[in-house]
Specification:
Layout (H helix, E strand, L loop, with lengths): L3 H11 L5 H10 L1 H15 L11 H7 L5 H12 L14 E4 L9 E5 L6 E2 L5 E4 H6 L2 H10 L6 H5 L3 H14 L4 E8 H24 L9 H8 L6 H12 L6 H5 L5 E5 L8 H8 L4 E2 L2 E3 L4 E4 L13 E2 L7 E4 L9 E2 L9 E4 L1
Parallel strand pairs: 1-4, 2-5, 5-6, 6-7
Antiparallel strand pairs: 3-4, 8-9, 9-10, 11-12, 11-13
Helix pairs in contact: 9-10, 10-12
C-alpha cells in the first residue's frame, strides 16, 4: 500500500490540469519522497531485467556502480542486434536514441528545428537522435506544437534534407516577420547555421516573398504544399529583406529583419556558451534566454527566471524527471555519490542520472 503522502504526490504528478507553479512547488518541496517514488517505479517495473533486480534504494546503491557508455556498449549492441532479453528494462526496445550532439502571449514563434535521418539496426530497431524522436512524438505534435504559434510547418520540421528544411522554415519566418515575437532553436549552432543560411540565400528567399512562390530547389511535395498555403506576393517585404541583407553588415540583423522580437531562446549552458558572442553580435541588445537544463538521456530542470543574465542563471532540478545522484567535483569531498537530499550548500557536484 502506497503511503498517503506519496499517493498525493503521485496524483499531482499525473494530473494534467495542475497549475505549473503549484506543480513545481509540490515537487521541489518533497524532494526525497518524489525521488523515492521515481526510483520505486523504475525498480519495480524492471525487477526482472538482467541489469536490475534491486528491490529498494538500499540494495540498489551498493550493487549498481558508476558506469560510462563504454561499459554498457556490449549490451547496447545486443539490443541493436535483436536480442529480446530484458537487459536494461522489461519493456521490449523498439527504438534507440542516438547522441548528437508585455505581449508574450501574442504573436508567432520562429524556431529553427533540426530533424535528422533515421537508421535501423541489424534487427530493424529504429535509431535516431533524441530530438528527432521528440519532434515526431505525440507529446510534441498534439501538445507542444498545437499550443504554440510556430511559423514552421510540420512537413518542414520533419524534412531531413537540410537545405529544404532550413529554406522552408526561413521563408515562413521571413514572410511573417512582423508577427514574430520570439526566435530560437534548441541549440545555438542550429540557430547560427540559420543566420548563415540567410546570409547566403536571401536573394532567392526575397524573390519567393516578392512573387508568392517557392524555390524549385524545394522538391518535397508536402513542404511545398504547406508553404503554398501561406505565401502571398509581398514586394514591399521582399525589398526590405534585400536592403538589410545586401549591405553585408549582419550586426544586429535579427532586430532589423524581425523588429518585434522580444528575446532569443536557446540552450546556452556548458559547451554552448562559446556561441554567446556570436549571438550577441547578431542580436545586439536582445535578451538571450536559456529555459531548460538537460542532456541526451533526460531533462533535469527548469530556469524559473529566464530573463536572468546568462552568467547568473540557476536551474531548479525537478525530482520527478529522473532519479538523480550527485558525485562531488572535488576529490577532497569525495565520500561517494549522494542522493538529492544529501548535497551540501556551497559545494560542487557532477549530476549523475
Amino acid at each position: 500500500m502506497e503511503k498517503e503522502g506519496n499517493l498525493r504526490l503521485r496524483q499531482i504528478a499525473m494530473k494534467e490540469e495542475v497549475e505549473p507553479l503549484e506543480f513545481i512547488e509540490e515537487m521541489t518541496s518533497h524532494v526525497d519522497e518524489v525521488q523515492q517514488m521515481v526510483l520505486d517505479d523504475i525498480l519495480s517495473t524492471n525487477a526482472n531485467a538482467e541489469d536490475m533486480g534491486y528491490s529498494d534504494r538500499k540494495t540498489f546503491k551498493p550493487k549498481l556502480p558508476i558506469i560510462e557508455y563504454k561499459d554498457i556498449l556490449p549490451d547496447i549492441q545486443r539490443i541493436a542486434n535483436g536480442d529480446p532479453s530484458p537487459i536494461f528494462y522489461v519493456q521490449s526496445t523498439s527504438e534507440i536514441p542516438t547522441r548528437n550532439i508585455s505581449g508574450l502571449d501574442k504573436g508567432k514563434v520562429l524556431f529553427f528545428f533540426s530533424t535528422r535521418t533515421e537508421t535501423k539496426s541489424p534487427a530493424g530497431i529504429i535509431m535516431r537522435p533524441l530530438l528527432t524522436r521528440y519532434f515526431k512524438s505525440p507529446q510534441f505534435l498534439c501538445k507542444h506544437f498545437a499550443n504554440i504559434n510556430y511559423t514552421s510547418s510540420i512537413p518542414s520540421i520533419h524534412c531531413t534534407d537540410v537545405f529544404q528544411s532550413l529554406y522552408a522554415q526561413m521563408l515562413a519566418g521571413l514572410a511573417d516577420r512582423l508577427a514574430i515575437f520570439q526566435i530560437g532553436s534548441t541549440f545555438a549552432p542550429i540557430f547560427l547555421q540559420a543566420i548563415h543560411f540567410l546570409k547566403h540565400h536571401y536573394q532567392e528567399l526575397a524573390a519567393d516573398i516578392e512573387h508568392g512562390t517557392v524555390n524549385p530547389q524545394v522538391t518535397d511535395t508536402e513542404v511545398r504544399a504547406a508553404l503554398g498555403n501561406t505565401l502571398t506576393p509581398n514586394p514591399e517585404n521582399a525589398e526590405h529583406i534585400r536592403k538589410e541583407c545586401s549591405s553585408g553588415d549582419f550586426q544586429g540583423i535579427i532586430r532589423r529583419i524581425w523588429p518585434n522580437t522580444k528575446f532569443l531562446d536557446l540552450i546556452l549552458t556548458g559547451p554552448m556558451a562559446q556561441y554567446i558572442p556570436s549571438l550577441n553580435f547578431y542580436s545586439v541588445d536582445l535578451p538571450l534566454t536559456s529555459t531548460s537544463y538537460g542532456s541526451s538521456e533526460c531533462s533535469f530542470g527548469l530556469n524559473l527566471y529566464p530573463f536572468t543574465i546568462l552568467e547568473d542563471i540557476d536551474y531548479t532540478i525537478m525530482p520527478n524527471m529522473a532519479y538523480f545522484e550527485f558525485l562531488p567535483a572535488k576529490p577532497a569531498d569525495d565520500i561517494g555519490w549522494r542522493g538529492a537530499m544529501q548535497v551540501e550548500d556551497g559545494k560542487e557536484y557532477e549530476l549523475m542520472k
